[in-house]
Write a structure and sequence with these properties.
- By secondary structure, the protein is of the alpha/beta class.
- The protein is 44% helix and 15% strand.
- The protein contains 11 helices and 7 strands.
- Strands 1-3-2-4-5-6-7 form a 7-stranded mixed sheet, sandwiched between helices.
- It starts with a strand and ends with a helix.
C-alpha cells in the first residue's frame, strides 16, 4: 500500500521513499514488479529516491543532459543538501543520444563533486539496479568503504564486471584492493596495473576518466 513518508527518513527494509513526480513512471512500475514497496513523499528535497541501505539517488535523464548545464546546478544542490546520514549516488542515463556527453558528466560527478556515478540504459535498467540494492543482504550501503574481512556485495561485484576489460576474476582482485566503487574510480593506472595488467588498467582508467575535449566543444 502506498503511504506518505517522513522527509529524510530511512525507509524500512524492502521499501523505497521516492518523489511524487515518479508516481506514474515506468521506473516505479519496475520497482513494484520487483517486489519493492513504494512510499511517496511530496517534498523529498533534491533526491529522487531514498533506500533502506542509507543511500539516496538522484536520477539524471537523457533529456537532462541534452538540455544543457541545468543538470550541473541540480547535482550541486544534491551534493550540498543531502543529509549526512545518506550516501549520495547518481544514476545517469547513458543512451545513444546522450553518450557524447557522458565523459563530461562523469568527470563533473566523480571528480568535481566526489559522488558515485552509476550509468544505466534507461528507467527499466534503473529499476532493476535499485531493486537489487533494496533487496540486498542487510541494510549496509554497498558503496561505502568496507573492510577486506567482509564478504563482497554481489551488486558491487556485478557493477565492476561491467567495466570494459574486467571479468569476474579481475573484479574480485580489484575489490580486494579497492573496497568501494569510489576508490576504484579514483585509482591511477599505476595502481591498477599490478592487479589486472597494463592493458586492462588502461581500459579501466579510461572508462572512469575519458577525455572531455571533444565533448566540451558540443553546444549545451
Amino acid at each position: 500500500m502506498e503511504t506518505k513518508a517522513v522527509l529524510n527518513a530511512v525507509p524500512p527494509y524492502g521499501h523505497v521513499i521516492t518523489s511524487e513526480k515518479w508516481r506514474n513512471s515506468s521506473l516505479i512500475q519496475g520497482l513494484k514488479g520487483g517486489g519493492v514497496r513504494i512510499l511517496f513523499e511530496e517534498e523529498l528535497a533534491v533526491a529522487d529516491f531514498q533506500l533502506p541501505n542509507k543511500s539516496c539517488i538522484l536520477y539524471v535523464s537523457e533529456c537532462d543532459v541534452i538540455a544543457g548545464n541545468g543538470y550541473k546546478r541540480k547535482l550541486v544542490r544534491y551534493r550540498n543538501s543531502s543529509s549526512s546520514r545518506f550516501q549520495e549516488l547518481v544514476l545517469l542515463e547513458n543512451t545513444r543520444l546522450s553518450e557524447q556527453y557522458f565523459a563530461a558528466v562523469q568527470t563533473f560527478v566523480v571528480l568535481d563533486l566526489g559522488l558515485t556515478l552509476l550509468p544505466v540504459g534507461g528507467q527499466t535498467e534503473a529499476s532493476q539496479l535499485i531493486t537489487q540494492m533494496v533487496h540486498g543482504e542487510g541494510r549496509e550501503n554497498p558503496f561505502r568503504r568496507r573492510t577486506s574481512s567482509r564478504l563482497l556485495d554481489p551488486l558491487v561485484l556485478a557493477l565492476v564486471q561491467h567495466v570494459p576489460g574486467v571479468g569476474r576474476v579481475k573484479a574480485l582482485a580489484l575489490l580486494e584492493r579497492f573496497s568501494s566503487i569510489q576508490q576504484l574510480c579514483n585509482a591511477a593506472p599505476a595502481e591498477l596495473e599490478p592487479i589486472v595488467g597494463q592493458a586492462a588498467a588502461q581500459q579501466i582508467h579510461s572508462f572512469f576518466h575519458k577525455p572531455t575535449a571533444a565533448v566540451s566543444q558540443e553546444p549545451w
